[in-house]
């Protein structure tokens, strides 16, 4: 259970940092994308550019996956 908590905490910290960086770079976050979907429905898919798509569907999952790896490594360093 502690391992899951540490990994979850690492993913959360990485997600917060990633979202902060994305805002500074002017890319769409998932929050922005959900707002577009709420306001415009399926036409929201035409309102974001390719860089935003790459970030949302490739970059962000990759960054969160790295958060998992970091959390797992921290757990191993502390408890193994």
List the helices and strands and how they pair.
Blueprint: H1 2-25, H2 30-40, H3 50-79
Helix pairs in contact: 1-3
Termini separation comes to 15 Å
What percentage of the residues does DSSP assign to strands (E)? under 5%
Task: Please identify the oligomeric state.
Answer: single chain
Give the mean pLDDT.
95
Largest beta-sheet details: none
- Output the radius of gyration: 15 Å
- Determine the number of helices (DSSP H or I, runs of at least 4 residues): 3
| Percent of residues in helices | over 70%
From the spread of the alpha carbons, the general shape counts as elongated
How many separate domains? 1
Order of helices and strands: HHH
SSE class: mainly alpha
Return residue spans where pLDDT drops below 50 for at least 5 consecutive residues.
none
Number of strands: 0
Report on the structure:
With 80 residues, this protein is mostly helical. The chain has one domain. The protein has three helices and no strands. It is elongated, with a radius of gyration of 15 Å. The two termini are 15 Å apart. The mean pLDDT is 95.
Pick out its properties:
3 helices; single chain; 0% strand; mainly alpha; 80 residues; elongated
């Amino acid at each position: 259970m502690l391992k899951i908590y540490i990994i979850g905490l690492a993913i959360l910290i990485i997600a917060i940092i990633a979202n902060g960086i994305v805002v500074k770079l002017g890319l769409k976050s998932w929050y922005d994308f959900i707002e577009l979907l709420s306001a415009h429905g399926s036409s929201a898919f035409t309102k974001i550019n390719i860089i935003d798509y790459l970030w949302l569907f490739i970059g962000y999952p990759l960054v969160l996956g790295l958060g998992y790896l970091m959390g797992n490594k921290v757990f191993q360093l502390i408890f193994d």
